[in-house]
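User: Just a sanity check before I run the rest of the batch. Below are the structure tokens for the first item. I only need the designed sequence back.
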């Protein structure tokens, strides 16, 4: 006979249980309980009891506050009102504007599609245009082949220019002041942009401080869902300081 004592599994709890008690129904210790953030004893729970509609009203208000925070500090929806940016942006497109793209030391770059407040420069409205020149750039139209030049280098805009449009029918030769932008629509024959305000105060330039943000996504209609990227034609332009001290 095997007389060696058999090992038995010990109850993990040192507290004795009543015979026949169901472990699943036994009360749990304080550390094992989860407490809802909307329980009556919580701060949000007390607010919910005070609001008409209770928890449902509180949830709606919290969602609205979250959307307001995102809209104010991160992303803002913008509806395209005209065809000046065709084919990149069409009338009625809804785009998401990245409002933090140019914070923390970053600045608009050539080729970016930006949304800006035109008050004092273009008109009392928000506009969407493409950045062609930044502070210090020498922008000229046009070279012998009809292309826009930035700091002495021609830009191949065929990837986004509206079919049949020329880069510009309006000649110009400008140096973009620091802290401003020279902007054009992709549908050049149907766009009121920096070219139309060359003789106005500010010379058609947009103060960087008036830029709301960078248009990053087309989100509606779903059939046009797209990420807006910076075209290589402008990403490869030389810096202003490398061209005759920035004046071409």
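Assistant: Here's the designed sequence for the first item:
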């Amino acid at each position: 006979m095997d007389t060696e004592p058999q090992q038995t599994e010990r109850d993990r709890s040192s507290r004795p249980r009543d015979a026949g008690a169901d472990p699943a129904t036994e009360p749990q210790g304080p550390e094992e309980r989860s407490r809802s953030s909307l329980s009556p004893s919580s701060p949000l729970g007390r607010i919910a009891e005070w609001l008409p509609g209770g928890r449902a009203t509180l949830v709606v208000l919290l969602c609205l506050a979250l959307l307001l925070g995102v809209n104010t500090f991160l992303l803002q929806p913008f509806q395209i009102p005209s065809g000046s940016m065709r084919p990149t942006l069409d009338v009625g497109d809804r785009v998401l504007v990245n409002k933090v793209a140019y914070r923390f030391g970053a600045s608009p770059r050539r080729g970016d599609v930006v949304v800006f407040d035109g008050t004092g420069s273009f008109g009392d409205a928000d506009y969407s245009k493409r950045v062609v020149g930044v502070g210090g750039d020498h922008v000229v139209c046009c070279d012998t082949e009809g292309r826009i030049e930035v700091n002495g280098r021609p830009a191949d805009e065929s990837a986004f220019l509206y079919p049949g449009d020329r880069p510009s029918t309006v000649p110009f030769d400008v140096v973009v002041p620091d802290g401003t932008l020279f902007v054009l629509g992709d549908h050049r024959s149907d766009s009121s942009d920096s070219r139309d305000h060359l003789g106005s105060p500010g010379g058609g330039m947009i103060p960087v401080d008036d830029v709301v943000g960078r248009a990053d996504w087309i989100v509606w209609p779903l059939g046009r869902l797209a990420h807006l990227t910076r075209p290589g034609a402008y990403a490869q332009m030389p810096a202003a300081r490398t061209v005759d001290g920035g004046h071409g």
